[in-house]
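Each lists sequence, tokenised fold; shown next:
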Amino acid sequence: LQVTAVDWISQYTDVIEMNVAENWQFENETFDLAFDAFCFKHLISMEERKIYIQELARTLKKSGYFALSLSDMTDGYYSQFFVKDAKEKNLILDPGNQIESILYTYDEVI
């Protein structure tokens, strides 16, 4: 049995609030790991997504890892909330918080 884990230690962790659809304040190849938990799906415009991907690629080290977690088209909860006649494909509106997001297929993410 082998376990690989990350300890969350507040003295070594900084929380930074920023708009990920704008240029990031970090140097090139800063991060060993980037983890996106349901952030990318809220970038509605192609321009926002383009900036996010460019900045992620720029700031992640060449040997770094990126983990992405999001809902897809087959999600049993979110797939019922598609916005009819939306300009953006696969747009949903969460009825609980009125926040828009995109449901992707596997092929669109890979």
In short: The beta strands are 31-37, 60-69, 91-93, 100-102. The chain has a mean pLDDT of 89.
